[in-house]
Every structure is written in C-alpha cells, then in structure tokens.
Amino acid sequence: MKAGVKVFAPASVANVACGFDILGFALNKPGDEIIARPTESRGLKISKITGDNGKLPYDVGKNTAGFAALKLLEHLDIAGQGIELEIHKKMPFGSGLGSSAASAAGAVVAVNEVLGRPLRREELLPFAVLGEEKADGAYHADNVAPSLLGGLILIRDTDTLDFYRIPTPKGLIATVIYPHIEILTKDARNVIKAEVTLEKHIEQSGNLAALILGMMQSDFDIIAKSLKDSIIEPQRSSLIPFFSEVQDAAMNAGALGCSISGAGPSIFALSMNSVIAEKVGKDMTSVLNKEAIHSDLYISPINSEGTIVY
Ligand code: HSE
C-alpha cells in the first residue's frame, strides 16, 4: 500500500442541454481534493472535511465520498482495510457543477491508488455513481463519469453504465456562470414531469443525435443548431433568477448554445474559441451584476484528464 495519495477531481457540466442524465463533460476547475492514507485501525473513516461549512456528514455510510470508497472496498472484499479520507471541498454544493460527483470520483481514485491500483479507472465508475446517489437520491452518471474519466461522455445505458467517450472539437470552450443561490438536485428533479410528449421526444432526439455528430465532426454549425433543450430547461428555468436574460446575453455574445448546467443554478455556454467564451462570460456576469446577484465565472476547455493523482 502507498503511504498516502492526494487527488484532484474536477467539476462537470451534466446534461449538456439535450442529453438529460446521459451526457456530461469535465471542466479544468473548480474541483475537489481528496486525500486517502492507510491507517493502523480497521475500516474506512473520514478524518477531515474542509470547505463545507460543517454541512457534510463524517459518517462513511452517509457521505458521498465515504460511501463511494466503502462500496469499492466491499467490492474488493477488504471493507476492514484501515484507510482514512480527507475531503477538501473546493466548490459549492447545489451549484450544478457536479460537486458531489467530484467528491465521489476523487474518493474512489484516491483509495484505488492507496491500494496499489487493483482496478482500472473505468472500473471505478459504478462505485462513484453509488456515492453520488447518496447526495442526489438518483442513480445517474452524467457528472461522475466525466469527473472520473475526463472528456465528453455519453452514457448509453445508465443501469449497466455502458458509456462512450465523444471527441470534441479543438477550440471548444465552456463558459460556466454560478449565481450564488443553492438548488438541490433532488428539488430540481422533483419539478420535472415524468411524461414527455412524442413531439418533444422527436425534437430532443434529433438535437441530441446531431450534437454528437457535430462534436465528432468538429462542425460548429451543427453544434450551434443542436445545443438546445426542449424538455428539461423549460421546466427548470424558473428556478434560476434571470435565466433567460443570462441565456440571451450568452447567445448575443456569440455562444454556440447556452443552457442549464446539470440541475442548476449554474448556466453554461459553449463557444468556438476563447475570445468568444470570454465575451460570453463578461456579458453573462453583467446581467447578474445588474440584478445584484453575486456569481463566479469559470472558463475552461473540455478537460480530457478527469481526476488527477498528484
Ligand atoms: N442529470 C442530472 C440532473 C445532473 O439534471 O438532474 C444533476 O446532478
């Protein structure tokens, strides 16, 4: 066993407009840091949590990172192994940036490293998804998979976690604005109707298929036509103050498309180069500034590495 391992697990943008629960990409920052180290005492424990304002549980069975790591140890049949985790939250909860997913991804990578890497990175995915389920109450991998593996990831089937890495065009830049309000994923999922009309299904499927095609062919025109959400965004946007004004500002500044990041309140836009991405960010920020809503801005290419071991 290694003496101790520190990892960085990045934030992610889930859904990517038309890919509800099945599409997500990783950002370069923000992200969480997780440290795992072997201990003399038996079993997994969380020894330190910072950056959470005291909100996260130390109970391994209730903590996203702890539960993910526990499920990994159980799978390896070494649940009694002495390991302690430190969780350093470097991004807000309920932000739509995949905060709990990053902690879960970071925990399984850190523990796997401490153990001498018994599993390949891809094999860690189910345990991290179980960890995130603790926070969300729902089983979906569209934040965890990109945070763990990097890139733009399509999850074809959530039950079996059959996923595919989708290439992205050179130059593609994400602008993500996080307005300082909290929306819990559980609450944002509760506002979504269980039924979808055939008309909306056809519209969304066309856009999702074309978005993947546009990404694979590095065709910004196809991406611009298809980066739209006909189903979820209309139901959730009222949870985010001034959403349509921010979206309009992004589109007027030249973004290819703009929608809710994950369950919100963060809003993301994709642009074909960093000059446009910066302008998009500036204009989105000024909408919120005018309304006296504090926000943080992140501008990042699609992160291809996922969780990094220091
Ligand atoms: N796909 C999820 C949702 C991501 O939109 O509810 C948030 O965790």
Short descriptors:
Ribosomal Protein S5, domain 2; 310 residues; 2 domains; Alpha-Beta Plaits; seven-stranded mixed β-sheet; single chain; globular; binds L-homoserine; four-stranded antiparallel β-sheet; 11 strands
Mean pLDDT: 97
Would you tell me the structural class of the helices and strands? alpha+beta
Bound molecules: L-homoserine
- Percent strand: 15-25%
For the record, the count of structural domains works out to 2
Radius of gyration: 19 Å
Task: Provide the helix percentage.
Answer: 25-40%
- By DSSP (H or I, 4+ residues per run), the number of helices equals 10
Shape: globular
- Tell me the distance between the termini: 16 Å
CATH topology title of the largest domain: Ribosomal Protein S5, domain 2
Order of helices and strands: EEEHEHHHEEEHHHHHEEHEE
Count the strands? 11
CATH class of the largest domain reads: Alpha Beta
Q: Any low-confidence stretches, pLDDT <50, length ≥5?
A: none
Characterize the main sheet: 7 strands, mixed
CATH architecture assignment of the largest domain:
2-Layer Sandwich
Can you put this structure into words, describing what you see?
With 310 residues, this protein is an alpha+beta fold. The chain has 2 domains: 5-167 and 305-309, Ribosomal Protein S5, domain 2 (2-Layer Sandwich), CATH 3.30.230.10; 173-301, 2-Layer Sandwich (Alpha-Beta Plaits), CATH 3.30.70. 35% of the residues lie in helices and 24% in strands. It has helices at 64-75, 99-114, 125-136, 144-149, 185-190, 198-216, 220-226, 233-236, 243-252, 274-290; strands at residues 5-14, 23-38, 44-50, 83-88, 152-157, 162-166, 173-179, 257-260, 267-271, 295-301, 308-309. Strand 8 and strand 9 form a beta hairpin. Helix 2 runs antiparallel to helix 3. The longest helix is centred in the last third of the chain and has 19 residues, at 198-216. L-homoserine binds next to helix 5.
